[in-house]
Design goal:
The complex is a heterodimer of chains A (about 250) and B (about 325). Chain A is an alpha/beta fold. Chain A contains 9 helices and 12 strands. Classes of the chains: A alpha/beta (about 250), B mainly alpha (about 325). At the A-B interface, helix 2, strand 8 and helix 3 of A face helix 7 and helix 8 of B.
Chain lengths: ~250, ~325
């Protein structure tokens, strides 16, 4: 079976700055991959490459067997037209560090926006599904609230529901709890744990080592644009082999 | 064991403090009122103002028709300018270099030359282009219009005002679009929206909050700029009627200037009311302050079922 995400020496540079220097990894279906590492190590950039918010410069990145961002024709690669790229992104949900909810729409309107206007789902159907999702993240009574009236944790849970409304086959989380008050982190991680237990394939950039240990199938430690160490989270966290991993973990644990 | 009673009556008495006094505000208000009354008395008793003439012409048929023409010029020109301004702003920000250049050149020309010159030019269009033909270049033509035989100064005035204003509106709209955080278009992109849909559904509605106040300025400014359409020449606007049509015949410029000013002020006031409601509509979700309706619902929940208030934080 094809893995959900397959990266083959993925490189990304912004001008002369090389951010990713050859990332190779695989995420199987239903697996949770957690990426940790110091800031500037390229974790978020790699995550953004997966749904083509950034264009890969070298190497290949596949989601569910499809090459991301390019079309293969014989030996050549063709840049993908924006419409085709948008179509690829529909099946990949993304949750951001700063939520990025639409402030001019209520919680429910945020959730039904893309299903209605991107997928063409009927409004009544989208609303029913939206209410369902709000209940799943424990916010049924907040359907008519605007994002500014919600706490950070509530906003992030709405953002997760918004991504789930597109029925993605893969969810990307970019430091989903880093902008939250400590007491609100738990509610968001709770929703993510539930999602993982339901079999969602997830790639999570995080600093929550407890979450990684408990939920992840695979932990990747990145530094300087390369994967320094990877493996089952308990092993990596308990017995880091690499000096840089040891140093990083000693600071965050 | 303590029982916490959450009903409002059980708490300490509400504070009933003596409000802070502001004696100087009263003094200032009285002084200003006295000055205003003195000025009004002086103006009312000064014959040079020509109040009987003012009263006679304030609701003169020609004047009200002129005010109506001015309002029409303003509205049509602004609607066209806003539509074209949105297109130009979006082109300016688009990833397409052809669109970007076209928009830049348009702004360069229409902001870089005086509106009066542009209006004169539009008035000369029938002289420059005597015929308008629609068809295939060097091939057959399907529609043929003789521009000189048409009497279209009103139309040319609208076009002249709108094309000039569009350049300014484009910059206002561009500023509004740039004020929307990048995360918003990123989230839309990640949800699979196209660039156009992201603009239409996510970015522009949020940009409106920034766009409306300066646009209100532009509308009011346009109302008064319409007095320049005499350059086209179109003479049936409010200023044209009061100054040339009436004042220069009866040799009483002051009362008719006051008539014109009164109407401009009246129309501006109406436009400001419209702006107030537009701003309120587009500021939804912009603050965490609850609306009266939401506050009522929460208060009700607090009174009736204590658990309903838990989510209020």
């Amino acid at each position: 079976m094809t893995p959900m995400v397959k990266a083959e020496s993925v490189c990304k540079s912004f001008g002369a700055l090389h951010v990713l220097k050859g990332i190779t990894l695989e995420v199987g279906r239903g697996e949770v991959l957690c990426m940790v590492g110091p800031s500037g190590s390229g974790k978020s950039t790699f995550l953004r490459c997966i749904n083509h918010l950034e264009q890969v410069n070298a190497g290949r990145l596949y989601v569910d067997g499809d090459l991301i961002g390019y079309r293969e024709g014989g030996t050549k690669l063709y840049e993908m037209p924006p419409r085709a790229a948008a179509k690829q992104r529909r099946d990949i949900g993304m949750v951001f560090q700063h939520f990025n909810l639409f402030p001019h729409r209520t919680a429910l309107e945020n959730i039904i926006e893309a299903p209605i206007h991107v997928k063409g789902v009927k409004k009544t159907e989208a609303v029913a599904r939206g209410k369902d999702l709000l209940e799943q993240v424990g916010l049924s009574e907040k359907a008519t609230a605007y994002p500014a009236q919600l706490s950070g944790g509530q906003q992030q849970r709405v953002a997760i529901a918004r991504a789930l409304a597109m029925n993605p086959k893969l969810m990307l989380f970019d430091e989903p709890t880093s902008a939250l008050d400590p007491e609100l982190v738990g509610e968001v991680l709770g929703v993510m744990k539930k999602l993982a237990s339901e079999g969602m394939t997830m790639v999570v950039v995080t600093h929550e080592m407890g979450f990684a240990r408990e939920v992840a199938n695979q932990l990747v430690f990145m530094d300087g644009g390369v994967v320094v160490e990877s493996g089952p989270p308990r092993e990596v966290l308990a017995n880091p082999k690499h000096e840089r991993t040891k140093e990083f973990l000693s600071k965050v644990l | 064991m303590t029982v916490v009673d959450t009903s409002p009556s059980a708490g300490p008495a509400a504070i009933d403090a003596v409000p802070l006094r502001h004696p100087w505000r009263w003094v200032a208000a009285v002084v200003i009122i006295i000055l205003v009354v003195l000025f009004l008395y002086g103006a009312a008793t000064n014959e040079a103002y020509g109040w009987p003439t003012y009263a006679k012409y304030l609701f003169d048929r020609r004047v009200t028709q002129g005010a109506w023409n001015t309002l029409q010029l303003t509205v049509y020109a602004m609607v066209l300018a806003i539509a074209l301004g949105v297109v130009l702003a979006v082109m300016r920000l688009s990833p397409n270099p052809v669109f970007r250049s076209v928009s830049w050149v348009y702004l360069w020309i229409f902001r870089g030359t005086p509106i009066y010159v542009q209006l004169v030019f539009w008035g000369l269009v029938p002289t420059l282009y005597k015929n308008l033909q629609l068809g295939i270049p060097f091939g057959p033509s399907f529609v043929h219009i003789n521009l000189q035989s048409l009497s279209i100064p009103f139309l040319l005035a609208i076009v002249g005002l709108a094309l000039n204003e569009a350049a300014y509106m484009a910059e206002i709209i561009r500023a509004g679009i740039s004020s929307v955080p990048e995360g918003q278009s990123e989230a839309s992109t990640a949800l699979g929206m196209s660039w156009g849909m992201t603009m239409r559904r996510t970015v522009l509605p949020q940009a409106m909050r920034v766009i409306i106040p300066p646009t209100g300025n532009e509308v009011i400014s346009m109302l008064k700029t319409t007095s320049l359409v005499t350059a086209v020449p179109y003479t049936l606007d409010l200023y044209g009627i009061t100054s040339r049509e009436i004042a220069s015949r009866i040799f009483e410029p002051i009362p008719l200037l006051l008539v014109a000013a009164t109407w401009y002020l009246a129309v501006t006031s109406v436009l400001m009311v419209g702006q107030f409601y537009l701003e309120r509509y587009f500021s939804r979700g912009a603050t965490r302050k609850l609306t009266t309706k939401q506050l009522e619902a929460l208060a009700k929940a607090q009174m009736g079922e204590p658990h309903g208030a838990a989510g209020a934080g």
